[in-house]
Write a structure and sequence with these properties.
single chain, 5-stranded mixed sheet, alpha/beta, Rossmann fold
Length: about 600
């Protein structure tokens, strides 16, 4: 009996020790700790669901064959919520320039109140604000997508820890931190040091799916030695018909040792040289800076390996002209050495950034457009970030949900004009008066700038600046009351979701528009929206003779897909129930 009591006490003690271990483990935390602050625009979504409404009189179309770009006016939390449905995993590049939280007077609002340095919860409010938006961001990027975030000293540490967290992008997906030289002439009023730089954090959604960021031309024909005096001696095996030996005469070379002042190389095989190539595989022993794996990787890249002189010392040329991408990885210092160059073409002024500009360049460019905006980013900076990420002029999609003056849209149009690309953008910005001068950001700054970029304008000197062309649709965020999933609320959401569905599908031209169903199209894709299930046969009859892909959304109080009704046209139609397809996304976001 005593023995059993001892066993029982031992088990209790063991259980208590395990419990204490778990408690101790919980307390061992690394990372950010802050007091989460509720945000009114987030709380609103518990009873109202965001949708989009188009502002028809702000549409700009200059080429019906080109893609349509979007400008969304409203709080970016609401815009991002909509985009989580319409553009999940569709975005190639995100660039944002969020509030820097400097504490300066009237710089940034939280819950409609200015946040200044006296606010004891200044950093907690900023983190609460950013967390809610960054949580909605990652899902928008393609697997190969990348995000750039501008920031300065005030929050760079907090932002990096936040982005490094696995709930967001994770430290393994950090591509790099760029330092941008934002001023040529820092303020003489700066205390201690004269600050002239900011940072741009770059993260991939999935590092393994992101191509290297390349920008500047490689130095063609510059050989890089395999050897490095002082390394451990090892043997590298080179394949046949791969190594160039143009400095060696044709013939057979016996295995032997070669010496010079820097290193000692030993040829372990007999080799034959024909027409500048070594036609058999061979091994070299030496003090190599590169491993066999690196050599094999170079071979896979079709880099040229050459034998320089008569010492059998191998060198390689990583970027041979015409072999593969003739660019090298970009550097993390983004310098401000270039100025705007002015050229005239057919009487119109053309501005072209030589290199990456500064805030001064950006302010001057906006000033010439008749627009005033505090601390804009230069077009050349955003062009650089987009170009190193999306090197080919394809139909990439770029998102900026702190769009401000619209620099990102300007950059996309400029790139497309120069290389014939069809990149698209989505800009999201509020319509507040952040400059405190009576001008609203969306309607008085961002939209007028984009309009001038598309159509052209006269600068302050009276010179005509050529328009870059392009298309734009302007939307405002709106809301549907939805405090509970009643049939009435579902009907209301479906009725208000039409433009949201058109944004999702990229189909804006009306084909059929009546109360029972609607059809929209772009050049080769159609969207059908059925509000009354009884109209299914009529819609099917309407699309019977139309060639192209159809996305059809059918109103359903449940989650019915109506596959049986469309089985005779299932090859050309993709079906989705609404509003359930939208509600699934919103339940995930607003839970």
């Amino acid at each position: 009996m005593v023995k059993n009591n001892k066993n029982s006490e031992a088990e209790k003690l063991k259980t208590e020790v395990e419990r204490l271990k778990k408690e101790l483990k919980k307390k061992k935390k690394y990372g950010l700790v802050w007091e989460d602050k509720p945000e009114e625009v987030v709380e609103m979504c518990k009873e109202k669901l965001p949708v989009l409404n188009e502002v028809k009189n702000k549409e700009i179309i200059t080429d019906k064959e080109k893609s349509v770009n979007l400008l969304i006016e409203g709080d970016n939390y609401h815009a991002l919520s909509v985009l989580n449905y319409t553009h999940a995993k569709k975005v190639d590049v995100i660039y944002i320039d969020p509030p820097y939280n400097t504490g300066k007077k009237k710089e940034w609002k939280f819950n409609d109140r200015w946040v200044d340095k006296k606010d004891a919860y200044r950093h907690s409010k900023w983190l609460s604000f950013m967390v809610k938006r960054l949580k909605l961001t990652k899902n928008l990027l393609k697997d190969s997508g990348v995000i750039f975030i501008s920031i300065d000293d005030n929050e760079v540490g907090q932002l990096k820890l936040l982005m490094d967290h696995t709930d967001f992008f994770g430290e393994n997906n950090l591509i790099g931190i760029f330092t941008w030289i934002r001023k040529r002439k820092p303020s003489h009023l700066d205390t201690h040091v004269r600050k002239n730089t900011e940072y741009i954090l770059c993260y991939a959604r999935s590092r393994k799916n992101l191509s290297p960021l390349k920008s500047s031309p490689a130095e063609e024909d510059k050989p890089y030695p395999f050897y490095n005096t002082g390394n451990t001696r090892k043997i590298l095996k080179f394949p046949a018909n791969y190594v160039q030996a143009s400095t060696l005469k044709d013939g057979i070379y016996n295995s032997q040792e070669f010496r010079d002042k820097k290193t000692r190389v030993k040829l372990l095989d007999k080799v034959e040289v024909k027409k500048g190539l070594i036609i058999n595989s061979f091994e070299l022993e030496g003090e190599w800076r590169y491993s066999q794996d690196t050599l094999n990787d170079l071979i896979g890249q079709k880099a040229a390996v050459i034998i320089k002189g008569k010492k059998f010392k191998p060198y390689y040329i990583r970027k041979l002209k015409g072999t593969f991408n003739e660019l090298k990885n970009t550097m993390t210092i983004l310098g401000a050495t270039g100025r705007l160059k002015k050229e005239f073409s057919n009487g119109d002024l053309v501005e072209e950034e030589l290199l990456i500009g500064t805030n001064e360049d950006a302010e001057e460019q906006l000033s010439q457009m008749g627009i005033k905006f505090n601390n804009p980013k230069p077009v050349s900076l955003i062009k650089f970030l987009i170009k190193v990420t999306t090197r080919q002029p394809k139909d990439y999609l770029v998102l900026d949900f702190f769009a401000g003056s619209g620099t990102t849209g300007h950059a996309v149009f400029d790139l497309n004009k120069k290389d014939g690309g069809d990149r698209k953008f989505i800009l999201c910005t509020n319509n507040e008066d952040n400059n405190n001068d009576g001008h609203k950001i969306a309607k008085d700054i961002c939209y007028p700038r984009i309009k001038k970029v598309i159509k052209g304008y006269k600068n302050l000197k009276g010179e005509r600046v050529a328009g870059l062309g392009g298309n734009l649709k302007y939307f405002e965020t709106d809301f549907v009351d939805y405090n509970e999933p009643t049939d009435k609320n579902k009907i209301k959401l479906t009725e208000q979701a039409t433009e949201m569905l058109c944004v999702k599908e990229g189909t804006f031209k009306k084909v059929i528009d009546n109360k029972r169903f609607k059809i929209f199209k772009n050049s080769n894709h159609y969207t059908g929206i059925i509000f009354d299930q009884a109209a299914i046969p009529t819609l099917k009859k309407a699309i019977k003779g139309i060639r192209g892909r159809f996305s059809v959304y059918v109103f359903s109080l449940g989650d019915e897909t109506f596959d049986d009704e469309f089985k005779d046209v299932k090859q050309k139609v993709q079906l989705s129930p609404i509003p359930e397809a939208i509600l699934r996304v919103y339940r995930r976001i607003f839970k």
